[in-house]
Write a structure and sequence with these properties.
With 306 residues, this protein is an alpha/beta fold. It is built from 11 helices and 12 strands. The protein binds adenosine-5'-triphosphate (ATP). It comes from Noviherbaspirillum aridicola.
Length: 306
């Protein structure tokens, strides 16, 4: 009993932590099948993706019974477009992506992809459809090739290199003495935040998902690295339904839709221009950021709604 309890308890803690960071969930789900909080419905069918439309319909959600986190959250991401979510820390932004990936089920309302309630489709097909570029990419103590191919074991060498090229990390890898065979991670080469995000982008490109979640890093990269990553993301978001959990306004000015979340409620929505014209919470955030930056009309800097 004791012997069984300790590892399961340990795995439970690990599961919660990883779930929280949205990192490496696929691997974890394979390891921890028995720890899922949500289960496939007995008659679950594979998700059939046509355009990749994402709908949150009047979603209420709480992690714990006593504290509601999302209130009547209702929005649609049209196929192939980008929706960005902004709001102060703790407003519920990352919770939206956890729900879309079905780490948890909603309390009321529903989430649908191309009209199919995500509770009625197999989790395997759901998670195959959604790619995540997480805040912090976990690298395994293995080769850089393994780390890129991870999530898509069938990938050929050529496909791995093509993904690395598209993520602008191929030249860096080639410059290493052992190239793609270089060991990375805790006990190998340490990659910078930007390099790690590029590995995550290459991984996602190999996965080629219809729906993309980009959970922007809270800690800013230096501005050149940031701009490069943004340009790449724009590339991979093209033609994919994309949800950006934004911590900086720089990432979202050209999103098709921006949602402003406040204490779990959508208080404003529209394009950047519409929200500026509205002169509400978003416009205030923008103005504050501009004042701090002293660079008119140039997006950037940390998001601050307080
Ligand atoms: P940030 O910008 O700081 O990343 P966020 O807007 O993404 O914040 P969420 O991570 O969605 O915020 O969290 C929303 C609320 O839910 C917070 O008050 C947080 O404390 C709470 N919360 C998050 N995860 C859990 C959990 N696993 N159990 C209980 N409460 C949680």
């Amino acid at each position: 009993m004791i012997q069984l309890y300790i590892p399961l308890n340990f795995l439970g803690v690990l599961y919660r932590e990883i779930k929280q960071s949205l990192a490496d969930m696929e691997r974890l789900f394979k390891l921890l099948d028995q720890h899922r909080e949500v289960a496939d419905a007995p008659d679950a069918k594979p998700l059939v993706v046509s355009g990749g439309e994402v709908r949150f319909e009047h979603v209420d959600f709480s992690y714990e019974a006593k504290r509601q986190i999302l209130f009547d959250v209702d929005f649609t991401i049209r196929p192939g477009t980008t929706t960005a979510v902004v709001g102060h820390s703790g407003s519920g932004k990352s919770t939206l992506s956890r729900l879309l990936f079905r780490f948890y089920d909603v309390q009321s309302g529903r989430i649908a992809i191309d009209g199919q309630d995500i509770r009625k489709v197999t989790q395997e097909s759901l998670r195959r459809t959604i790619g995540i570029v997480p805040q912090d990419t976990v690298l395994f103590n293995d080769t850089i090739e393994y780390n890129i191919a991870y999530g898509n074991p069938q990938a050929s060498r050529e496909e791995i290199i093509a993904a690395a090229r598209a993520a602008y990390i191929h030249d860096f890898i080639e410059s290493l003495p052992d190239g793609y065979a270089t060991m990375v991670g805790e006990r190998g080469l340490k990659l910078s935040g930007g390099e790690k995000q590029r590995v995550a982008i290459a991984r996602t490109l190999l996965k080629d998902p219809a729906i993309l979640i980009f959970d922007e890093a809270t800690s800013a990269l230096d501005s050149r690295a940031e701009q490069a990553i943004q340009a790449q993301l724009k590339e991979i978001a093209r033609d994919r339904t994309t949800l950006v959990i934004a911590h900086r306004l720089s990432t979202i000015a050209d999103a098709a839709q921006i949602l402003v979340l406040d204490h779990g409620r959508i208080i404003e929505r529209g394009t950047h221009a519409e929200l500026i014209a509205r002169d509400g919470a978003y416009a205030q955030m923008w103005a504050r950021q501009q004042a701090r930056q002293e660079v008119p009309a140039s997006p950037g800097g940390d998001l601050d709604m307080e």
